[in-house]
Specification:
With 392 residues, the chain is mainly alpha-helical. The protein folds into 3 domains: 155 residues, no CATH class; 33 residues, no CATH class; 95 residues, Cytochrome c-like domain (Cytochrome Bc1 Complex, Chain D, domain 2). 58% of the residues lie in helices and 4% in strands. It has a two-stranded antiparallel ribbon with strand order 1-2. A hairpin with a 2-residue loop joins strand 1 and strand 2. Helix 1 packs parallel to helix 3 and helix 8 packs across helix 11. The longest helix is centred in the middle third of the chain and has 39 residues. It is elongated, with a radius of gyration of 47 Å. Keywords: Heme, Iron, Membrane, Metal-binding, Signal, Transmembrane, Transmembrane helix.
């Protein structure tokens, strides 16, 4: 057996010596670049050297495992080593050589272009090829290890059979772990936990609860005690009803904040009549302060037109009134108020003006403009209505 292994190792080392010039050729190919200074070689990169060393170490492990597998399986290594082993070794070495050749090809292109993205100083292709080689080697080692384990198990059974001893079936790792987790008793020890009660052939055993179930029960008791103290004794956390009330209050606050924010987005296309007393009071206060000089404190009209009748110069809908206040009619003496009032304030003023309809204040100014009905019907202009250059 020693001669056999020695022959294998010497043959393997000879193949490595023959393949070494291929690796040196890869280094030379890396150094070549079209027209200019040589590109950085893969051998100058610490990450590349580390990955190559790992690949070589794994390659040696594969070679040793291959020797063990072949020896354990009693294969005719002398007939297959010249073809199979040489082919595998050369194939792996060509994988080592490929990144260097690809790196040399990329170097000629990169000379005239900006530096590409890299991984640890390596081109992505080079890095992933090396990583792929290492992954394949690890997979090969895993598979060969499983083969060794299987061959050894068969050999152990064969030896036991020759000796006339029944081979003991070893339970799987999962079964051992599961039995230990549940504290299962082996079949041969069931007599120790038999309570002597037999019900139609069903024996009663004194089995304990699984530890994980028992410990889980203890944990629920501890959690329950903590819950009782926190929610019902110290009252440091809200109950479900209190949580609901807190959530609803928060939702109301968020809704009010949203409505207050979205109210400022109102314009002449989206405005609607405000009927809330607070909004109308705010509109009245602004109207009396800023608009009464032209339209009167009760909207009866003065320099400006009467705002309480059915006649409007520029439309009597809430959108028309909003638009008139916002943009004004400078050529007719009505200034634009959009720089003085917010959209909400303009909507409040317009809603207050609409609330003055039909109040018939004393000293009301004569009709001006066109008759307007709230249903949208706009009859022809009243011939008795006096046209005025002042708008409302």
């Amino acid at each position: 057996m020693f001669t056999y292994k020695k022959h294998f190792l010497s043959s393997f080392l000879r193949k490595l010596y023959i393949a070494a010039p291929l690796l040196l050729l890869g280094t030379a190919a890396t150094a070549q670049q079209t027209g200019g200074a040589p590109a950085p070689s893969i051998w100058d990169n610490a990450l590349a050297l580390t990955m190559l060393i790992i690949s070589l170490v794994l390659l040696l492990v594969i070679a040793l495992l291959a020797n063990v597998v072949l020896g354990t399986a009693k294969l005719h290594f002398d007939k297959q080593k010249k073809s199979d082993s040489a082919t595998k070794i050369v194939a792996v070495l060509l994988l080592f050589l490929a990144p260097s050749l690809l790196h040399a090809q990329d170097a000629a292109t990169d000379a005239a272009a900006a530096a590409p993205s890299s991984i640890g100083g390596l081109t992505p292709l080079t890095f992933w090829v090396l990583a792929g080689v290492i992954a394949v080697e690890l997979l090969v080692i895993l598979v060969m290890g499983l083969f060794v384990k299987r061959f050894l198990a068969k050999e152990k059974i064969a030896i036991a059979a020759e000796a006339g001893i029944a081979a003991e079936a070893k339970p799987s790792g999962f079964k051992v772990w599961w039995d230990k987790l549940n504290s299962f008793k082996p079949m041969e020890k069931e007599a120790d936990i038999d309570l002597g009660h037999n019900y139609d052939g069903i024996r009663e055993l004194d089995n304990r609860l699984p530890p994980w179930w028992l410990y889980g029960f203890y944990v629920t008791i501890i959690i329950g005690a903590i819950y009782l103290w926190r929610y019902h004794i110290s009252e440091t956390a809200p109950l479900s009803k209190q949580e609901f009330e807190i959530a609803m209050k928060k939702a109301d606050e968020e809704k009010a904040a949203y409505l207050a924010k979205s109210a400022n987005n109102v314009d002449e296309n989206t405005v609607t009549i405000l009927k809330e007393p607070a909004a109308l009071d705010a509109g009245k206060a602004t109207f009396v302060q800023m608009c009464a000089a032209c339209h009167g404190k009760a909207g009866e009209g003065g320099v400006g037109p009467n705002l309480t009748d059915d006649y409007w110069i520029h439309g009597g809908s809430i959108k028309d009134v909003f638009k008139t206040i916002k943009y004004g009619w400078p050529e007719k003496g009505m200034k634009a108020w959009q720089d003085d009032f917010s959209p909400v304030q303009i909507a409040q003023i317009a809603s207050y003006i609409k609330s003055l309809h039909g109040t018939n204040p004393p000293n009301a100014k004569e009709k001006q403009g066109d008759l307007y009905k709230e249903d949208g019907a706009a009859p022809a202009a009243d011939s008795t209505a006096k046209k005025d250059v002042v708008i409302k």
